[in-house]
Amino acid sequence: MNFKKVTLAALMLLALAAPVMASTNDLVELMRSDLRTNKRAIVTKAMQMDEASSAKFWPVYSEYETELTKLNDQRVTMIKDYAAAYNSMTDESAKDLIKRGFKLQESRTSLLKKYVGKMSKAVDVKTAARWAQVEHALDSAIDLQIASELPLLQ
User: Rounded CA gap, 43 and 36, in Å?
Assistant: First the structure.
């Protein structure tokens, strides 16, 4: 499975979720729902690993997902804060949200870098690089879906 197919699969998965999107709670559900199961299936298909590589890959991937969940929890909090302040947004609260958003993005990038290093030690570097591509594509698709559902600041 090539990179384009993985990206297309992720976007189709999100398109299926799109019709039910309407509220902040729906956005939270997107980040916590069975998307994780589907994401794991997409990663499995894209990685095309033999049993020996899989045995080394999945424990590291699970560690990554555990840490990513913590960052996603921060993102959920930020989305809820945005929604709560949307109608009464001040310059200060907007500035705070921007600062938190950049920090979160930096943390996600740092986490991916950290786990590319760990993954490179568990499996070969090309496999780790392929995983980073797949992970980035899936995260980008999720980011796009969330961004498309959040109203622009007034």
Answer: 10
Cα separation of 31 and 142, whole Å? Answer: 8
Instruction: Name the residue among 119, 141, 134, 145 with its Cα closest to residue 47.
Output: 134
Say if CB 137 and CB 3 are below 8 A apart.
yes
Q: SS3 string of the chain? A: CCHHHHHHHHHHHHHHHHHHCCCHHHHHHHHHCCHHHHHHHHHHHHHCCCHHHHHHHHHHHHHHHHHHHHHHHHHHHHHHHHHHHHHHCCHHHHHHHHHHHHHHHHHHHHHHHHHHHHHHHHCCHHHHHHHHHHHHHHHHHHHHHHHHHCCCCC
- What is d(CA 150, CA 144) in angstroms, rounded to the nearest whole number? 10
Instruction: Tell me if the pTM is above 0.70.
Output: yes
- Tens-digit pLDDT profile for the chain (154 aa)? 554 554 444 444 444 333 333 455 665 565 555 566 688 889 999 999 999 999 999 999 999 999 999 998 999 899 999 999 999 999 999 999 999 999 999 999 999 999 999 999 999 999 999 999 999 998 888 888 888 888 888 8
Token pair for residue 119?
């993954």
